[in-house]
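Run log, item B.
One chain of 257 residues. Sequence copied directly from the ordering sheet:
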Amino acid sequence: MSLRATVIRGVSGALYHSGLVGPLARGVAFTRTKPRVPILTFHRVNDEGDPFMPSQPTAIFAARMAHIARHYRVLAVEELATRLQEGRVPRNALAITFDDGYRDNLTHAAPILKRLGLPATIFLVTGHIDTPHALWFDRLAMAFKTATARRLELGDGHRLSLGTVVERLAALDVALDHLKHVSDDERSTSVERLVSRTRSCPGFPLITRGTRSTAQRPPSRRLSEIPSAPSPIPTADPTTTTRPSRDWFKTRGSPAR
């Protein structure tokens, strides 16, 4: 770790434990002529520790939410949009969102949010609700994780090594970066080709079932039925059906932004 990173971490830790973060954040907010609202975006919240399916550990998520509950006014995205239009956003406003709607958003994150009374918005990929199909980047990640091939060639001629876990993770990042710049149709074809060429372990499911939560999305009806969910957890972005490449690539390995 660099000296700069060490100093930043030390100062941040000192501010957090001193209890000054909240007052400082509110003070900065009041110096602005127009409100600027932080929107936190999460993907997975679980304790599986799978580097191919990065997630926010439950304890860390709980600690962050507790801090937010103490120092911020959390609004659902719909309410935040209305308040911005009407010019009545609290200076300490903040929104919490989840991309893609993984099952652990309900099993791990929702009970924490409910306990703290924090609303959140889940952006569901509607084309995958109530289906056994994984999102293309999850499918690719699982294929790279279980690959038996030692090398792989991308469509642009780039050769990737798949010998070790470190090499597979690096190769996955290169493949994702390549695929985010192609059209949806080309991406679909390329993913099928790459999955085939990885020669993934026979019988290894590309959708994980049971208690694991990394690849399954919650059925839509359970958003309102599950008793542990905050009331309400609004859902949004109903027109997204296939999850095109966008911010997921920027935040892979960093659960929140």
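Observations after the first pass:
- Strands lie at 39-42, 73-74, 93-100, 121-124, 151-153, 159-161, 235-236.
- The chain has a mean pLDDT of 76.
Flagged for discussion on Thursday.
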